[in-house]
Amino acid sequence: MRVAALLACAVGLGAAADRADAGYLDLMGIPELEALLGAATPDGTGIKVQQIEALSGSNYMPIPDQNPAYFSGKTISAMSGASPSNSAHASLVARNFYSNTFALASGITEADVFEATDWTGSGFLGSSISQTPQTTDARIANHSWISSDFSVLDELQRFDYLVDEDDLIQVAGMSNTGPGTFNSAIWGSSYNAITVGLTNGNHYNGSGNVGGIYNGLREAPTLVTPGYATNNTTTFTSYAAPMVSSVSAMLLEVGQDVLLSNGSYTNRTRTINHAEASEVIKAVLMAGADRYAVGPRADSDDDLLDYAVNTPNNLDNRYGAGQMNVLNAYLTYTAGEQDSIQDGGGATVDAIGWDYDPSFGGSSGSNATATYTFSTMNFVDSRLYASLVWNLDVEDSHGGSFFVPTTTLHDLNLDLKLGASTVESSNSTVDNTENLYEVLAPGEQYDLVVSKVGGNFDFDYAIAWRVEYNRWGTDADGNWSQRSNWTEFTPDGSDNAAAFHGDITAPRTVTLDQNATLRGIWFDAASSYTLATDLGTETVTLNDSASSQATILVTDDNGSADHDVQAELVLVDDLLIDTQTSAELGTTGGIDNAAGRAITKNGTGDWRIDGTQSHGSGASLTINDGGVIFDSDAGGGGANLAVTVDGGDALFNADQSLASLDVVAGSIQIGNSPGQITTGSYSQAAGVVLEIEIEGAGAGVGYDQIAVTGAANIDGTLDLQLDGYSPSIGEQFIAIDAATLTGQFDTVTGVLHNNLSLGLAVTYSADDVIVTAAFAGDSNLDLIVDELDLALLAANWNQTGKTWAGGDFTGEGTVDAIDLYVLSRNWGAAVPLNEAIESAFAGIAIPEPATGLIGLIGLTLMMRRRRRTA
Known about the structure:
This protein is an alpha/beta fold. The protein is 14% helix and 32% strand. The chain is built from eleven helices and 56 strands. Helix 5 runs parallel beside helix 7. The radius of gyration is 40 Å and the shape is elongated. The protein starts with a strand and ends with a helix. Residues 1-21 and 830-870 have low confidence and may be disordered.
């Protein structure tokens, strides 16, 4: 008889730990799943299980203690015989597996408990009596025990047969010894089991050389968990395995929903949906596992920090696929079955999901390749987790009660392709899983391709995949360099973007405690992010090695969250600022654009620039939409920045020194109350609005001014704003002071003030746009409104394109009856108007005076002349 020996485990641990104090359970996505599903969180209801244990001492069967409340309502059947006492080890394993207060699968109510030697022999597996393994209505068998007998090839074949033929999911703990030591846990050498190690790596890794096809060349474990007992201190694979068994039960409960699967089949025990296949459960757990996991204790030995792909099937030889994540597994599972293109599936699959192919390999009409095409998100980096799983094919060559096993390991490959290029391959010749763990480019379409190697066959496989985009992943403030604050990896490199999305419930500060290089930054959250600096000297270098244009993107339908980058931005490549909401993006850390790159502003939101700016020769900024608010001088490093406003608005809250300012569409405002823009050239197109504030004397001090060292070419609208200031008649303000001036404004707004008595007359010289405070109607600016002004108005009557000097006192560009009315109101400057003239004006039909009014103008002039010669 084979001797079975248990690992040492703590006993007498006291009262049951409550789920709320579960500690390490929080690491595996469990709180997030419960927050997502609430009362609908699956708990393994309706799933019957097996628990296999070694003898407790020499005489007592390993039966859990059924008295505590945490086993209330459970039917725990002693399949290997009654026992006068209970097993502390069996109790602890059962608590992690199916107890009411600690286990995830608390809905399990039926458990058949076997003593290990009995289970492998006549009690179930039939090895000692050479009979075909029995069938069971249990769905999962948990093995938290090890064997001291390693010459058990027949048992391993029978063990894998149960998984392959009956879909009895076997979960087995690895040996509790460090890497490289002898693996005494026999089931750790199984092909078809889910083998489980510890997150801290303190377990045997690799399969054992049992003989035959079990040659010790394969990778194990499948995945890891923290492996703590219910006291959250004792760590063994005995406690890691039932956690995986518990989650498998949760998935099987969900998998009974026929809508998840595209078909079903019948095995020796039952008809099951594709989602319930052993390969699917294993693939989903592997694809959902975390390659990086931080434990609840300060001891880094409890963390998975150094995952490395170092095996032929693209796993880590210590951690397998990584630490089990219940949330990821559930989301992958419930995304549903999605067939390959060759099996009639759609042209593309979702970014998360699975497939079970019951007939693959090229014979009997089956396909020899299977393609799953998916797309990645735009802008942001993604990581692919994909696992292809198939069973060792174990057949009963005898076909009767006398079991004679034969085994066949089919060879499958898994490739990731981008167009015609292969990005990555998993092509082990000895394992029965292939895996991909790869950073993906944004906005691309990839193919996952399953292919067979060698001769044709007809067999089944399962594949699961998950495309996870990298982003700030904690609902808290934190340091940039802390890996655990990101969902996938700390972004740093010209092929990485930093995404800050809606995983936060309140404003958060991310402290840049290192210099970072990025191809872009993406804000997409209803709460605000602030990218602060640790020492005040950290920088973000923007360098997109692929497109030569880095991007800062702001999205979110809520549109209420403002975001601020307080680190200096260093431009290696051109930069696109795209604010697609009404929220504001701040770059208050300044800009180092010594390389002279082009900056483009798109999107309806505002971009606020503060901090020191330094732009090199050839630098440019084009504003296509939204607003750009200059809170600092773009000429801090010299007047090198050429600004083009081609839509949206530019607000200059600080005096500026620019290479050029060209306003094609939109508006500009000198908002330094008042301020001055000094630029090498200035152009303003039709339809553009320039706002000039006048609050006193002195250019840039009392009123806004554009000082142009070269040529100015103007059109569009000039908007004048007094802001409560009352200038003296004759006081002048040089709105544009240029070396040469061409063109004129077709519209001037804000001209008339003080109940139409004061006008801001805009006139033009060869080099300046001059604003003069004048009596409204004083077209020649001789400080009196008289017949000379009336004559100028009459000479331009009903003509367009006129200025103040031509009788356009309202600034709309046309000389009409409203201008005449303004003149009449101020006839003789501040002297009251002649009553006859006032009466005549009362009968004017505005705005169509036509020839009758022209005659009136002539009569008025004649009367005025006679009075002067009398």
